[in-house]
Amino acid sequence: MLPGIRQTYFIVFLGCTGLILAALYMQHAMGMHPCPLCITQRIFVIVVGLLALLAALHNPAAFGRKIYGGLSIIGALIGAGVAGRHVWIQNLPEDQVPACGPGLEYMFETFPLMDALRLLFQGDGNCADVVWQFLGLSIPGWTLVAFVGLAVISLWQALRKA
């Protein structure tokens, strides 16, 4: 039997929470410092997770499910685009990897907000490092898989009957 609509939203929230906890574990316990694209992906995992939590608490009717589902799909697809770009950068030949850019704090302190955000989404040479793999996929590769899964679940939630 499939979980109910409210339960599915809560499961998505828990999945997103697990992804963020795994990222924080890798950062603080394993010493893997996130690059700008990693941070951007975390932001979109949080966005989708918070939308799922709000939907679970709200328990919307059909129209509300379409709204929550649509917003979640948008968040997941943007996150998938960022993760896909990250995977692409990681697979570039060494001579084509973008130069390393300034740190995140420096970007937001020095540049206008829109320029800092553009640099954040663009990624840099730090994003090309593959520091961990599982079953042949890097962290951004697994994050891309997660975002695709989140988009599919969000579409299913938006279209399913109660």
UniProtKB/TrEMBL annotation:
* This protein's encoding gene: dsbB
**Topology in membrane:** Multi-pass membrane protein
Give residue ranges on the Cytoplasmic side.
Answer: 1-8, 61-66, 161-162
| Name by which UniProt lists this protein | Disulfide bond formation protein B
Broad class of the protein's primary localization: membrane
Please name the InterPro entries in this protein's record: DiS_bond_form_DsbB/BdbC (IPR003752), Disulphide_bond_form_DsbB (IPR022920), DsbB (IPR050183), DsbB-like_sf (IPR023380)
Keywords in alphabetical order, please: Cell inner membrane, Cell membrane, Chaperone, Disulfide bond, Electron transport, Membrane, Oxidoreductase, Redox-active center, Transmembrane, Transmembrane helix, Transport
Disulfide pairs?
A: 35-38
TM region(s), chain numbering? 9-27, 39-57, 69-88, 139-159
Source species, please? Simiduia aestuariiviva
One GO process term, biological-process aspect: protein folding
User: Which HAMAP family has this protein been placed in?
Assistant: DsbB
Taxonomic superkingdom: Bacteria
Q: Might you report a single GO cellular component term?
A: plasma membrane
Question: What is its subcellular localisation?
Answer: Cell inner membrane; Cell membrane
Which parts of the chain does the record assign to the membrane side Periplasmic? 26-43
Q: Is Lyase set as a keyword in this record? A: no
What Gene Ontology terms describe what this protein does at the molecular function level? electron transfer activity; protein-disulfide reductase activity
Q: Which family does it belong to?
A: Belongs to the DsbB family.
Q: Any keyword Chaperone? A: yes
* Chain's role: Required for disulfide bond formation in some periplasmic proteins. Acts by oxidizing the DsbA protein.
